[in-house]
Every structure is written in structure tokens, then in C-alpha cells.
Design goal:
With 272 residues, the chain is of the alpha/beta class. It has ten helices and nine strands. It has two domains: 189 residues, Vaccinia Virus protein VP39 (Rossmann fold, 3-Layer(aba) Sandwich), CATH 3.40.50; 65 residues, Helicase, Ruva Protein, domain 3. Strands 4-3-2-5-6-9-7 form a seven-stranded mixed sheet. Helix 8 packs across helix 10. The termini are far apart.
Length: 272
């Protein structure tokens, strides 16, 4: 495939092409348990992972924004005819692509990996499994335990809905060009939760507000979110800082305010 030397990774797209076949195969295998479900591959590049997904005869759709990569895929993977979406993943309406549950896999561009996971949350009832390559630093945040500095907004929001596994580390020499940092493969599997037991938007707002002021206690940070002071803040849980709380405790706090809003019929937070 002489075209490989022609396609140069584009820094503005955060491209680091995977060049080790055994790593690509292992990534494809991370979703092998879900063979009955369609797969969306994000950023296939020159098809390192795609090749092994097609060998499994998967119901595969790929989304790629790089025109050179798209042309490469069309030439060397004719099986993808009609299954290549030439668009920015972050702008895709996944409901238009999949009527039911599906899986996501990919070598995620470093510059938008966190945004990808926030988007996945919007389709949590359809995305059954998500796995792939990302910066090790980001992977560590996703699996972080409460009490650690790496524990943050994306950790809490994702783990409310997904069980997340850190599978293995990938060294820089497995890519072209070699990134300056290690990468990692993670897998997220949708848990059995169907409802949080609180207002979901309120839960998200509380988590984001708390971690945006992570040095403050919850009592001080959340008062900026709610318009009225009330006796809910007497609860000792508000003495804690956000990294000290489990996912379940964040849900508990959101349910407290949800109940207050319902019982008082007042808005405790700004209507945007």
C-alpha cells in the first residue's frame, strides 16, 4: 500500500496512526463479545483496526473527517462501500444512524477524546459498549477513584452509567508519528441503571459546578448554583469537597434538591 507514505498525519486533527497489527487486533477484540450489535468506528484512519473488524464480518460503519483517509479506505476496503460517513463525529446525530443499541470503537483523536465521551453520554441508552485508544492520562481520569486528583467531572458522569475498565497500555513507538505520551485502551460497558432517581440535568449541573470549584466545600460551591438558601445545606455531606464524594453521593445530593423543588414548587437554580 504505497499510499501509506502519502497520508501524513495532521496535527490539527490529533492524528497518530496505529502501526502495530497486534495492538489493532487486540482493540478489535475488545468488543468481540457484542458480535450481534452494529459497530461505529471513530477515526479509522488507514484502517488498522477496521481490517480486523471486517474480518469478523461485523455490521460496521466508520466515521472519518480526513479526505485522504476516506479515499484510502474506499480504495483498499471496498467492503465499506456505503458505510463511510464523511463527517465530524462530534456533529453527528447518532439517532439517525442507529435505531437500536450499538457499540463504538476507535483510535480516538487526542484533541477531542474527552468531547467524544461527553457526546457518548447523550446516547447512553443506545451505546452498549465503547472501547478504544486514548491518552493514558485521560484513561486514568476515567477510571480514577474518589479522593484522587484525577477524579473529576467526566469520571463521575460516565461512571453513573458505565462500568469502565483499563485494559492495557500502548507505548509511543506503536504510532506514526510517535506521541510524546503513553496511550491506553479502555472499555466501557453500559451498566444496568435505567434511572438516576433524580433530575439528570440537575445531577450534571451539580457535578460540573462542584468540580469547577473543587477547592471549595460543596456548601460554598453549590450555593452559586442555587438561588435560594435553604436548610438542605445543613446536611454534613456539604462539608466535603467534590473529589471526596462517590457517584452515589452525587446522585443523593441531586435527589435532595430534586425533592425540594417538587415539594416547594420553587426554582432553586437559574432558568437558562
Amino acid at each position: 500500500m504505497s499510499d501509506i507514505c502519502v497520508i501524513r498525519p495532521k496535527k490539527f486533527l490529533g492524528q497518530h496512526f496505529l502501526k502495530k497489527k497486534h495492538i489493532a487486533r487486540r482493540i478489535a477484540d475488545t468488543i468481540s463479545f457484542y458480535k450481534d450489535f452494529p459497530v461505529l468506528e471513530i477515526g479509522p484512519g488507514m484502517g488498522a483496526i477496521t481490517k480486523f473488524l471486517l474480518q469478523e464480518r461485523r455490521n460496521l460503519t466508520v466515521v472519518e473527517i480526513d479526505r485522504q483517509c476516506i479515499n484510502f479506505l474506499k480504495k483498499y476496503y471496498p467492503q465499506l462501500d456505503g458505510c463511510i460517513i464523511e463527517e465530524d463525529f462530534l456533529k453527528l446525530n447518532l439517532d439517525d444512524l442507529f435505531l437500536d443499541r450499538f457499540c463504538i470503537v476507535g483510535n480516538y483523536p487526542y484533541n477531542i477524546s474527552t468531547q467524544i465521551f461527553f457526546k457518548i453520554l447523550n446516547y447512553k441508552n443506545k451505546i452498549l459498549c465503547c472501547s478504544g485508544l486514548l491518552q493514558k492520562e485521560v484513561a486514568k481520569r476515567l477510571i480514577s477513584l474518589q479522593g484522587r486528583k484525577t477524579y473529576g467531572i467526566i469520571t463521575v458522569l460516565l461512571r453513573a452509567w458505565y462500568d469502565i475498565e483499563y485494559l492495557f497500555t500502548v507505548s509511543p513507538d506503536c504510532f506514526s508519528p510517535s506521541p510524546k505520551v503513553n496511550s491506553a485502551v479502555i472499555r466501557m460497558i453500559r451498566n444496568k441503571r435505567t434511572k438516576l432517581g433524580c433530575d439528570e440535568l440537575l445531577f450534571t449541573n451539580i457535578v460540573k459546578t462542584a468540580f469547577n470549584k473543587r477547592r471549595k466545600t460543596l456548601r460554598n460551591s453549590l450555593k452559586s448554583l442555587f438561588i435560594e438558601n435553604n436548610d438542605v445545606f445543613i446536611n454534613p455531606i456539604f462539608d466535603k469537597r467534590p473529589e471526596q464524594l462517590s457517584v452515589e453521593e452525587f446522585i443523593y445530593i441531586a435527589s435532595m434538591f430534586t425533592s425540594y423543588v417538587v415539594s416547594s414548587k420553587k426554582h432553586l437554580f437559574p432558568i437558562l
